[in-house]
Amino acid sequence: MELDFLKRLIVPAESKIVLLIMDGLGGLPREAGGKTELETAHKPHLDALAARSALGLTVPVGPGITPGSGPGHLAIFGYDPIENEIGRGAMEALGVDFELGPDDVAARGNFCSLDAQGRITDRRAGRIPSEISQALAQSLRSIQVEGAQFFIEPVKEHRFAFIMRGAGLSDALSETDPQKVGTPPLPVVALQPAAERSASIANQFIAQARQVLAGEHPANSILLRGFSKLPELPGYQELYGLRAAAIATNGMYRGVARMAGMQVLPVQGTSIADEFTTLEQHWNDYDFFYLHVKQTDTAGELGDFDLKVRVIEEVDGLLPRLLALDPDVLVVSGDHSSPAVLKAHSWHPVPTLLYARHVRSEGVAEYGERACARGSLGVLPAKDILPMALAHAQRLAKYGA
Amino acid sequence: MELDFLKRLIVPAESKIVLLIMDGLGGLPREAGGKTELETAHKPHLDALAARSALGLTVPVGPGITPGSGPGHLAIFGYDPIENEIGRGAMEALGVDFELGPDDVAARGNFCSLDAQGRITDRRAGRIPSEISQALAQSLRSIQVEGAQFFIEPVKEHRFAFIMRGAGLSDALSETDPQKVGTPPLPVVALQPAAERSASIANQFIAQARQVLAGEHPANSILLRGFSKLPELPGYQELYGLRAAAIATNGMYRGVARMAGMQVLPVQGTSIADEFTTLEQHWNDYDFFYLHVKQTDTAGELGDFDLKVRVIEEVDGLLPRLLALDPDVLVVSGDHSSPAVLKAHSWHPVPTLLYARHVRSEGVAEYGERACARGSLGVLPAKDILPMALAHAQRLAKYGA
């Protein structure tokens, strides 16, 4: 279903929609036949809500596809995550809260070590401390090349986001990292004729960077990967007439939410409870809230089954505060699975709950992978959740007579 | 799956398929946690049939989309309801059993009231009685404009279907109803250059109508909305080699069935039993029967939960007559949901039952929303039902070697 089709059916309403995303929510049992993290958690509020909700399993990108955070979020926000690919450079820039614009081409930068012959001896410059990296980034900001403006935003240790801004810049550019030591960095090559000028600008920047960093061993040069522009998405206001707000403590999620035209709200503090406080404070100002819980994914990637269980229980303990706001539609889901036993994102579908006054509820007081697999929403693309949320919020008119 | 793909697999067979559509069948519980209309109904025959059938929930148009009758029926007939949009004017003409052809552009007409300055004072001309409307329609039939022939078909009170017929006419035309009083009607404007002549013809008709109706206050002019041609669909005979018949007491459904190339059978009487009698009378003459029950939707739109339950029970009581005919394939479904608690069409998926000799049956003697949610057909697009019916009727050859 095309977004334009949805857009023409939109009608105004006073209803409020909340999308509560526990990152990497889906899991696996610790041992075969056991319970997943979500099934293990003691979560009386989520289970009670499940009885009044429709359940299903969402597939973020496609069957068998393990999503990164970008595509996982685009899908749960209702966009096609394959048509709208977010490149690695753009994700790196979003991750440090850099507000990428339509004239920006971003790349993932590494400080690296070169020998006297210009051959790479360390692709990560000995993982220099972040403080050194920040000083080096500052010195790179002095570089000037005709046709573009540059931004260098430190990420962590040897990593930084590189952004070049200028009218008509292209991201059809090859990477400079040869992915091995003993050879010089590769030049940036235009992958399309229209990218020739952009390639030249990037190469001039790199040449100057090498001069600026000449005395800074081990970080005496840079590597750039994943040149990318942001896909241009129509936002929630334009598409759905929704005043949408995002609550997230990590830059990458704020960035993807900004792509969807959401207003990113400031959070005082870094706890999940702080995010719920932000939700309460801004409740009257928006129609749609995306609230992101990062800690489930972190626990999953650490392989800490018990920690992931505890994070889910913490969210469950906060749920009454959300329910007290009386949202018209509440979706609880994840952007992908991150089973602790895999210590990584995975391809498994994501347990999803849709609550609304006129939802056709299951009557089963259990929110878990297996309960969702038997749910009335079935196994469905994650991007189908948003249209259903809009419908249950009475924001979609009838199609046809 | 494209219809052309299906068409090339078609093989002849002697089997008979029945599509029993209870309009707006899907429902919601009266109160949270309760039973829906279908779940409440005492329906021993449908429940017994469910045990020998496959069950599922069909999505007529897309997730969250509330279908009108046109798109809901196109989907259950196996056509894509978004690609094949039926405009409001065309639906109005179908509703009065007007046989729209490929050269016809239809619109929804209203008689309206204008003041001496030509400003609208009542968009519905005081809802004049149908008898007056019929006489006025008769007088409009005298109007002649070069390049088109006109048909004026009264619907009810101030409403009529307006059809202009002529080679090369376009429906890319704007509406004349400003949707408010105190301003004059809008002229018809061509939305594409190729529609200029059609706009001119429509405007000449309206100008003459104003003269003809000048002395007929309150109905002294007309408004036209929703100009549309019928989408041209390949029919069941052409696609599937099916001699298909439609049994429906309401013009709109007869019209959509005619679009699919079905022969519309005359029904003696207006009861559901009368429709079953028609089915019996013509059993030997066709391969495919669509039997439409309007009363479930009417009850749903009235908000009469109990009436909807009783209509379902009435259909259940008639089911043995249908089963006595021994259809090879029987699909029981709806074109959309019309929960009594919403008093309107809704986006909720539709409980669907597929019976055939070689269906993989559930063994669960219950036909209801929740039973269908757990059914082996899953949650599926409504347009996928027809190919499955054809397969179970032994009318589809193997694909590939």
Short synopsis of the structure:
Two copies of one chain form a homodimer. Chain A contains 14 helices and 13 strands.
Task: Describe, in plain words, how this protein is organized in 3D.
- The structure is a homodimer of 401-residue chains.
- In chain A, α4 packs across α9 (251-259) and α11 packs antiparallel against α12 (305-323).
- Chain A starts with a helix and ends in a 9-residue tail after the last helix.
- In chain A, the strands form 2 sheets. In chain A, strands 9-8-10-1-11-12-2-13 form an 8-stranded mixed sheet, sandwiched between helices. In chain A, strands 3, 4, 5, 6 and 7 form a 5-stranded antiparallel sheet that branches.
- Chain A has helices at 3-9, 37-40, 44-51, 69-76, 88-95, 130-140, 196-212, 236-240, 251-259, 272-281, 295-302, 305-323, 369-373, 385-392, and strands spanning 17-22, 53-59, 104-114, 120-122, 149-156, 159-165, 221-228, 244-247, 263-264, 288-293, 329-333, 350-356, 378-381.
- Helices cover 32% and strands 19% of the residues of chain A.
- Chain A folds into 2 domains: 3-86 and 233-392, Alkaline Phosphatase, subunit A; 90-228, Alpha-Beta Plaits (2-Layer Sandwich).
- The longest helix of chain A has 19 residues, at 305-323.
